[in-house]
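Before any further analysis, we paired sequence with structure tokens, yielding the entry below:
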Amino acid sequence: MQNPSKSTVRVSWQALFSGLMFGFMYLPILVLGVYSFNASPTSAQWTGFTLDWYVKFFHDSRILSALSDSLTVACCAVGISAIVGTLMAVGLARYQFPGKSLYQGASYLPMIIPDIAIAVATLVFLAVIAVPLSLWTIVAAHVVFCLAYVAFVVSTRLVNLNPHLEEAALDLGATPYQALVRVLLPELMPAIISGCLLAFVLSMDDFLISSFTAGGGATTLPMEIFSRIRTSVRPDINALSVFLMVTSGGVAVIAETIRYRSEKKRLR
């Protein structure tokens, strides 16, 4: 029979370890959030509570311009990735062709390759083909990793999808295009939306790849933030960081909720 006292001690140590782990990860975020309300123009000391810094960055023309560039890059990259990534996932799941295993492994490499490697490789490739750096080279570079995430999320949905649904539609007189649009895509739509939201968050938060592939006049929001914290971290940047974390977290929660509800509906 197990000794209750030993079990209590073991649980206590597990709880302590979990608390230390989560504290190490989230305590800096908590400190950042607290100091975003600091009335002092520097983060050296606390002088009072204020919301002025949250108002200030909404009236900063450079911040708004960088936000516009980031949204343009993210929307374009995610839009392209949604179409190509879905077709790629369907092709890999439904068809057999020579070199399929090699292509499937290579298509998901951007998820495990370090960002710095992707950034350097993209920059070298653009230099070799003599493409001038601009906002659209950032879009092209972001498509590389957004495509992998969208295809991966859609492929996980395809694994649990009944392949006989498309066959039944074809037997009933539907064309392959009609079976894709009216049968397969509605079933995949929650996964497509979830993958797009995940890719959107990753694109908005990316710094390394954007900084390597940006041309003159193209500045994303992470690049603008980095340029301002080289000397010191000001409360307006703290406020902007908190705003971005809350927004990114909200989008991630929406993506996970859509995925969970679609999976729960499928299992009924």
